[in-house]
């Protein structure tokens, strides 16, 4: 009888398939950026299109994933139906879960695609779902970043936490010996209803941004020109003061201890790191293209910061900050990426089209209809305005329930340099508040005190990139802003938006000025430099020949002295006598271009008087080499090793691998 029953049920038993299993370990992570190990098995007839989805909150609808990874690109054993992958997770103040889906060739819908025009994976066939993964409580706030207030003896610190309970910042000259009363942080946030367009105001793009805290540390002693031990734990240098800070609360936990060098308005030296259009990287694919090169940019800047020791410096990011474009968790990824540098030095920004532009923005003159569109992903400047707090009080109403757009234009002195930030996304024409600010500010510069004036904005006044859509805006800038710059002796104008590095001769109305060499009359014109090469990898073509617009031949105009598609950033070093701007390439961390400007306005190299050779190669002088390069080489190995450890496992090449496997291309047609 038993044999008969076994014979009867054996075919049925053989048809029973094991259910796919998806496990995660650990289920509680210590801090943002820690990795979770994800393992799966029992996937029957695995396909190259089987994919793993990341979800936060864990109960999000299937199509509201944070990101995804194809199993075939994640594990060498995927064809066996089993595999594993480790992913670093950024805290979004809610738990994560993971799901595996089957997606078939017949279900590929080319109408539903990501920003790269790659079809988004389908969610019809759920195979497995994991338990949730969370973060330890009491780890303190995150996304810490500093900013100058514009007032001597102060430093602003901002951070994000999961609730609005009171947080404080305690600080002092020695770790563990906190001076005076702690600075109480004010708190704010924005809501989904503040967003003005899709995807920012839809469930697919919106995630709770947490509570944003803002505190000002005051009564700080000013730093002066003196080098001392990096970090300076327990040691006060003779001429620099290092402040160590902790942010948080007793009940919610304190953050890791960070340090910064206090601002000294009277310093005779300025050091800054400047770039635009960086974005952020993610270890997964998502709705919006992310920027792997941003990791290299931060890596090299961190090297430079550590090599400098404790010299006061700051970072300037001139528009197109996170490229979140309505997918709010990319702001969290961005701040997680920059925290190693932004918690050390002030991180300053100005607004770009991908933070702001939306169809019904308040200022949109007829000539700008083709310029201002949907680039902001419906954010209408809200996350940018609340997540940063720059000096000054510039703002423009949005015309909606959203709070006014802030951080539009401001200025401050840093050593011998006067820095000015402007907005190319809001009204800058005569009669506007911004124009009045720029005119008054530039006319008020005391060039005996700050002999150098540097203006920064997002969209460039000059470029040889084929940016025909922005031509009307450039015409307005040339008509109304260039006269202000020339009249008020602006030395350097830095722009982003075009994802290349390009340096021009000293310019006025497309005409190169003389370099001021002996025996020649000369007039000081601004040197324009496009520095939008920090991360975004969409590359425009150069401007074609007017008489052959369709031929892929792009002669370099005489006014353009150096241009490249390489990623990187710029370093600015100034004394009261000379300002040097250097372009550092990401592929090797070396200087590839440099321009020097004297306090008189004279440009020493890279002009129209290089013995008849425009853009002649110039030699880095010994003073500049000594003042920076030696520091860099002295600290490179240890710093790079530390940073690689910080981001190890974070860079994902799945985007390129998937594109290759599917025959999809990663090129875009309209992205600035």
Automatic annotation (TrEMBL):
It catalyses: a phosphate monoester + H2O = an alcohol + phosphate. Residues 1-18 form the signal peptide. Its EC number is 3.1.3.2. It holds the Pfam family Metallophos. Residues 141-261 form the Purple acid phosphatase N-terminal domain. It is found in: Secreted. SUPFAM superfamilies: Metallo-dependent phosphatases, Purple acid phosphatase, N-terminal domain. One of its GO terms (cellular component) is extracellular region. InterPro entries: Calcineurin-like_PHP (IPR004843), Metallo-depent_PP-like (IPR029052), MPP_PAP (IPR041792), PAPs_C (IPR025733), PAPs_N (IPR015914), Purple_acid_Pase-like_N (IPR008963). One of its GO terms (molecular function) is acid phosphatase activity. Belongs to the metallophosphoesterase superfamily. Purple acid phosphatase family. Homodimer. This is Purple acid phosphatase. It comes from Gossypium anomalum.
